[in-house]
Design goal:
The chain has a single domain, classed as Alpha-Beta Complex (Sufe protein. Chain: A), CATH 3.90.1010.10. 54% of the residues lie in helices and 17% in strands. The chain contains 6 helices and 3 strands, in the order ααβββαααα. Strands 1-2-3 form a 3-stranded antiparallel sheet, covered by helices on one side. A hairpin with a 5-residue loop joins β1 and β2. It is elongated and about 60 Å long. The termini are far apart.
């Protein structure tokens, strides 16, 4: 197979995948999955947590807390696009909130931002919210 034939085939496959994604996920979910915010790890975080969900995806969240406010929040995941989108959204929701406010972020809050997820990906919002809560619990164990 010639390079240009391979490139054409690859382009067709990418186009089909994109069409399939657009039928399954909301525009916001695709935007967060393809261009996530707050990806990475913090040097010297105030708190951190890592949880592996029942599907095998892992999300790690680092918090930087100043006073009682989450001034920065980063995540990494080895999961699917839905996990990436949920990690991005949950960290955005937590930034600028007090520890108490952020501890009340739920999977439904994440889903409301994304415009919902397919049934088979709902656990991703739960995993992201649970990981945030675990990072907050880690902060509370040390600072409260």
């Amino acid at each position: 197979m010639k390079n240009q034939d391979f490139d054409a085939l690859l382009g067709e496959i990418e186009s089909e995948i994109q069409k399939d994604e657009e039928e399954i996920y909301t525009e916001r979910t695709l935007e967060e999955a393809h261009n996530p915010k707050n990806v990475g790890e913090l040097k010297s975080p105030s708190a951190a947590a890592r949880i592996t969900g029942s599907c095998g995806d892992t999300i790690q969240i680092h918090l930087k807390v100043e006073g009682d406010i989450i001034s920065d929040c980063k995540f990494i995941t080895d999961g699917c696009g839905a996990s990436i989108a949920c990690g991005s959204v949950v960290t955005e929701l937590a930034k600028g909130k007090t520890i108490e406010e952020a501890s009340k972020i739920t999977p439904d809050d994440v889903l409301a931002v994304l415009g919902n997820l397919p049934e088979e990906n709902l656990h991703c919002a739960q995993l992201a919210a649970n990981t945030l809560k675990a990072a907050i619990d880690d902060y509370k164990r040390v600072h409260y």
